[in-house]
Structures are given as C-alpha cells and as structure tokens.
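In response to reviewer comment 3 from the previous cycle, which asked for concrete evidence that the modeling workflow produces usable outputs, we include below a single protein chain processed end to end. The sequence was submitted unchanged, and the resulting structure tokens are shown without manual editing.
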Amino acid sequence: MKTLSIIMPVRNEAPIIRQQLLRLQGIRAAGHELIVVDGGSTDSTVQQTEGLVDRCEHSSVGRSRQMNAGAAVASGDILLFLHADTELPTDAVEQLIGAMQSQGRRWGWFDVRLSGARPAFTLLATMMNRRARLTSVCSGDQALFVERALFQQIAGFPRIALMEDIAISKALRRLGRPARPVGIATTSSRRWQENGLLATIVLMWKLRLLYFIGVSPARLVELYYPQALAREPQALARENHGRARLAVFAREPRLGQVKSRLAVEIGEPAALAVYEAMLRRLGTLLNQAGLAAWELWVTSNTSHERFLSLCNKKDIHLQLGQDLGARMSHTLQQTLRRGDTDVVVLIGTDCPALTADYLHRALSALEAGTDVVLGPAEDGGYVLIGARAPIPELFEGISWGSDQVLAQTLVRLEASQLSCQLLETLWDVDRPEDLARLRQLEPPLHWG
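The workflow returned the following structure tokens.
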C-alpha cells in the first residue's frame, strides 16, 4: 500500500492545533506520516505539537513556503496538504488512494462542507465544489493531494504570497485530470463568520478575478490582509531575497556562558533568561519576515532544544575559528561557497532592536552592488555585517570586544578599496541599564 505524508502549514493556531492533531493519530498509527510546518508562531502552537507529529519543521511565513518545506522532508508516496482548520473524512487515506488507483489519477482533492449550521454555508460549499470540478482548480481548504514524484516534477508550489492553490492546480491539470474521492472534508466557517458571509464571498471572488487578469499576488495580499498591512506598512512591499542568506551567530544557552558582563550585575540565571528571550525574539522575527533563508551558527551543541525550537537541524552549524573574526570569516566563506547564495548577512543575538525593514535594507544594498554593509552599534561595534564575497582581511587584527571594532573595520574597508553602506546606529544589550529598553520595544521583551 502506498504511504501518505500529511503536511500542515500553521501559524498561531494554538486554540485548535491539538484537537486537529489528535484526530490524525489513527492515520499515524497506520504507518503514515504527519508533518507540521510552523511559520513563526508567537503562541504555543509549536509546543502543542510535541508527541503528536513525526516532524515539526520551521519555515519563513507563507503557506507556499511552508508547504514546500514540508514536502522537502516528506517520505510518503503521496503528499496531502491540510489546513489546521480542515477535518478529513475518517477513511480519507483509503478513499484518496482508492480513487487515484481506480481512476488512474495522480492528484486530486476532497469536496468540502462548511462547519456552520446556516443554510447559506451549505449553499456556499456546494458552489465551491462545483466550481472546483468544472475548472479542475481547488482551494486550499479542499485538502489537495498529489504524488510526491509529480509534485517534484512541477517544482512544488510557486513561491507567491497568495493564490498558491490556484497556481498549483493549473500546473497539475496540464498533466492530467484530478481524482475525485467520495468522502467529504469539513472546513471551518470561522473566516466567513468573523468577516461576514457576503463580504467574504465578494472579497474572494474579487481576488480571484484580479489574479486572473494579472494583478500580482503581493498586491492581493494587501487586499486580503489589510490588518497586517496596517501593523507594518513596509512588510508586504518586500520581496523575498531568494539568493541571500542570513547567518545568526549564537552561543549555546548555558548558565554562566552567556552575557557575562550582564551577569555580574543581575546574576547568571537572569542573564541566561535575557539571552534566551532575545534568541527567541530574533528567531520569530526571521521566520515571520520571510526575507531570506537563515541559519544558526553556534559555538557548541547543534542539537540544543532552544536551537531546534527555532529552526531545523540541517540549518544549525558549528562556528570554526580561533577568535570571533576568524569564525565570522569562515562562516562568510562557507556560506558564499554554495551555488545558491550571492550575499550573506551575519547578525548576532544581542540586538533586539533589529527589524525586518532594517534587514531588508541591508540585503537590498548588497544586491544592488555594495561590497559591504554594516549596522553600527552604540558601543563602537556593529550589530550586523554583510558582504558579497569572502574578505578575510576585514576580520583580521580587530580588537574584538572593544569600542574600536567599527572604526578598525572601516579602516580595513578603505585600505581594500571596497564600497560600504552604513545603516543607522542601533543598541545592543550588555549592561543593566540596557534592560529598561527591552520593555520599550514593540512588543516589549519579557525574560522573567
């Protein structure tokens, strides 16, 4: 019998995720695979998956990115993409495999019903199902399934901000007709209940029409998520930096091994708590922003639970080198050596004032041709350094830990005749007086 990998993209689904996963344990017990891909949740979503999934992966936010990330590690013959608020029929596996075999199909979806009791929801679900059958284009709520080999053949979901379900359906229908299982999936009506039935229907049809006539998915996101746009006006204008990489330098979170200057004043347990809070904040920022692929470069223990809660094991590497400069130079060299990376930005964990827009500007400067970009720190160092090529001399003979780091680096840049862009100066956390600033962040950073 063929095996199935269920891939579920999630973000801040704590109220419903555990119940959904419990419903799927019978499928796991039958030898199939359940993968959750978190897109930077800030609630307890990830914690509630423990013991209930085969893999919990981490990805930048965006369903297409998350589902592709899940597919990349899946082992099943068939991939099924399931929303956290969609419930499969009890015999879903047997139905979809049977339909694919008996109908000679390689992909398909389930018809759906909406969970609400109103007659309008029944009518709406009927319209959704009929439209999908007529056009061979399904919605994300309908639990798309596809042979893994076929999914790889079409290179997965297009990396677009919205309408990824329509785009992949169109790609698949060119290669064959979809299978039609008899069973019906149940999807939550919360979207229609919260935003109004008629208003939501009008919005969805408007988005589909605009997509059909060529409006970009990025613009459609602005219409679909106006609240997110209001919170961060620049975020939706950013494009993913597909050939860039962010390298986060981190120490293993161990008592007495982090924030030593701070620990002298507030004690080692409090200093460790501050460090872990800043590490979590940075990981959440990078996952939610989705600017570029990112990795952790750590001093020791690549399997530490704090590291694994932020990113996947394959993206955690050991720093190598005698001092900080040698370790940064090695990381830059190794990362740029890969065929898929043109620019690299190194950042530490000590600057909770970093924003997605700040990182976006650093990446954009490098992509525009600037040799080096620096984010100065108030203490005379820098919170960020990025480059387009390995530059060993940039990290040699620097008085690391002193207030001369930035000045000495600028001298090296001038001697090497390299172009440089300085971003605005930010603050990092080294002294007790810096802790008050953590409470002024938006949102505030809490550590105890």
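The CA atoms of residues 20 and 275 lie 34 Å apart. We consider this sufficient to address the reviewer's concern, and the full set will be provided in the supplementary archive.
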